[in-house]
Design brief:
Blueprint lengths: L1 H7 L16 H22 L8 H24 L33 H18 L1 H9 L8 H20 L6 H21 L3 H4 L5 H23 L9 H33 L1
Length: about 270
């Protein structure tokens, strides 16, 4: 309990009182509930029921995801916290100009630091919204689409997102959030176009590259974390959180790489 109390004292007090931020437990219960629904309760409920036709709802959901992801990407890139460290050029003015970034702790609602905190919170909520990917598969009785990769990925990210918002809402590891939001723009654009029917689906030759882009995302974030972990840069951002981020990126890369081999390389070998 003493360890918990000491850790809790390190929280970013700017987010005190925000929904789901007062304790880790609600997010943990939400994620446990998601896993139970995805792997047991959902398939059991739909076992003797007809699949639902949800094309309109799925298209609306995909559009919402594209717009929300684009908003988060642009917001994170344009409000990147600053620090006195190595500068790197980027294509957007003021967008993540540093290789290492500490958290800007201003409480001014109009400050980049506070905007970053709000954006991080929205990113965290978006990870809970991502559960709908699985729920739509359940209602459409496409149980084989609910892979362990999807369940593990969706269950991990809200927990990680909560820790980010609660303790370090901004700075170094929001780089990964920005890249992830951009990847989601392309991913949910693909899902929306795919839902329009066979005529459009024939034109979507780039599906397999989505997984490659996701693996590239994990790799980029992983190596950016290493610069802080090994002290190649120093801006005051806790290396321990970079280590946590790097560990999660390594796990996700391994899961996605295994998925890629099973679903694309083997198909290519069979076709050859």
């Amino acid at each position: 309990m003493d360890v918990y109390n000491r850790l809790w004292e390190l929280r970013d007090k700017r987010v005190d009182g925000w929904p789901l931020m007062e304790s880790f437990q609600p997010t943990l219960y939400i994620c446990i509930g998601y896993v139970l629904v995805a792997k047991a309760l959902g398939p059991f409920y739909m076992k003797n029921r007809n699949a639902y036709e949800l094309y309109g709802w799925i298209r609306l959901y995909n559009i919402i995801q594209v717009l929300a992801s684009l908003y988060m990407f642009l917001g994170l890139m344009n409000n990147g916290a600053s620090c006195d460290s190595l500068e790197l050029p980027f294509w957007l003015p003021g967008a993540f100009p540093k290789l290492c970034q500490n958290v800007e702790t201003s409480s001014d609602p109009n400050s980049p630091g506070m905007k970053m905190a709000v954006l991080c919170w929205w990113c965290y909520l978006s990870k809970i919204l991502d559960f709908m990917d699985t729920f739509f598969f359940i209602f459409k009785k496409k149980f084989t689409h609910i892979s362990y990769l999807q369940v593990i990925h969706h269950a991990i990210m809200p927990l990680f997102g909560w820790a980010l918002v609660r303790f370090l809402p901004g700075g170094q590891e929001t780089f990964g959030g920005a890249i992830n939001a951009l990847v989601h723009v392309f991913m949910y654009s693909y899902y929306f176009l795919s839902s329009l029917g066979p005529r459009v689906q024939r034109l979507l030759w780039w599906k397999k590259y989505l997984t490659q882009i996701q693996m590239l995302q994990f790799t980029a974030v992983f190596f950016k974390c290493l610069t802080n972990i090994f002290g190649l840069v120093d801006c005051g951002y806790p290396w321990q959180f970079s280590l946590l981020t790097a560990s999660i990126m390594a796990i996700l890369f391994a899961l996605f790489f295994n998925f890629y081999l099973e679903n694309y390389r083997q198909k290519t070998m069979k076709q050859g």
